[in-house]
Amino acid sequence: MNCVVCESNLVEVFDIIDQKKYLECKVCLAKFLDKANLLSPVEEKNHYLTHQNNISDVRYRKFLSKLSIPLKTKLFKNAKGLDYGCGHGPALVDMLRSEGFPMDLYDPFFFQNEFIFLKKYDFISCTETIEHFFKPSQEFNLLNLLLKEKGWLGLMTCFMPKNKFFKNWYYKNDPTHVVFYCEKTFEVIAQKRNWICEIISKDIVLFNKT
């Protein structure tokens, strides 16, 4: 099997936890679930519907601001953006629109706006999204196509702990979380696409398409 993130063939079994097989890439250091453990689309959507992501929830908006605040410093006035994988409660879209940024939104389950694939954007945000990608390499290639030259891609996901702590890591317990990233993973993602990678803080990454 090749790595679902960087497509390297240097992949080994990392561990089997609660009857789930986790694989590890020796190049980008990503860990990901074996295909046999992936949910069906119906199971996946039903799980997302249990999320309580209210657009007006002050705590949720503060959580999302960990990405929106550093991302805004990179953008020019009226930059056009896309929130990719916005879920059924697109609070970040509401936040950025209120700051004067025109926003489109897309989610394969809740906002299937196919017209986005005919556009290019000044920036794209993905908050708590990339850990759900079944095929991250293909998704990042798509995001690259959707970004204009010099555009910004802002990501939020929980960075992986060291191997010895992975077994007890709460983040992996969500059945829709299937790929896990560390700083090295993001560096490899950037190198493969000639992006500049900025690790802003824990769990926050900005890519610039050069």
What does this structure look like?
Helix 2 (58-72) packs across helix 3. The chain has one domain (11-209): 3-Layer(aba) Sandwich (Rossmann fold), CATH 3.40.50. The protein has helices at residues 41-48, 58-72, 91-98, 136-146, 163-166, 183-193; strands at residues 11-17, 20-25, 31-33, 81-84, 103-106, 121-127, 147-156, 179-180, 195-201, 204-209. The strands form 2 sheets. Strands 5-4-6-7-10-9 form a 6-stranded mixed sheet, with helices on both faces. The chain is of the alpha/beta class and 210 residues long. The two termini are 31 Å apart.
Name the descriptors.
four-stranded antiparallel sheet; alpha/beta; about 210 residues; Rossmann fold; six-stranded mixed sheet
Blueprint of the fold:
Layout: E1 11-17, E2 20-25, E3 31-33, H1 41-48, H2 58-72, E4 81-84, H3 91-98, E5 103-106, E6 121-127, H4 136-146, E7 147-156, H5 163-166, E8 179-180, H6 183-193, E9 195-201, E10 204-209
Parallel strand pairs: 4-5, 4-6, 6-7
Antiparallel strand pairs: 1-2, 2-3, 3-8, 7-10, 9-10
Helix pairs in contact: 2-3
- Which geometry do the CA atoms define? globular
- Return the CATH topology: Rossmann fold
Structural category: alpha/beta
Query: Could you tell me the radius of gyration in angstroms?
Result: 17 Å
Give the gist of this structure.
By secondary structure, the protein is of the alpha/beta class. 27% of the residues lie in helices and 27% in strands.
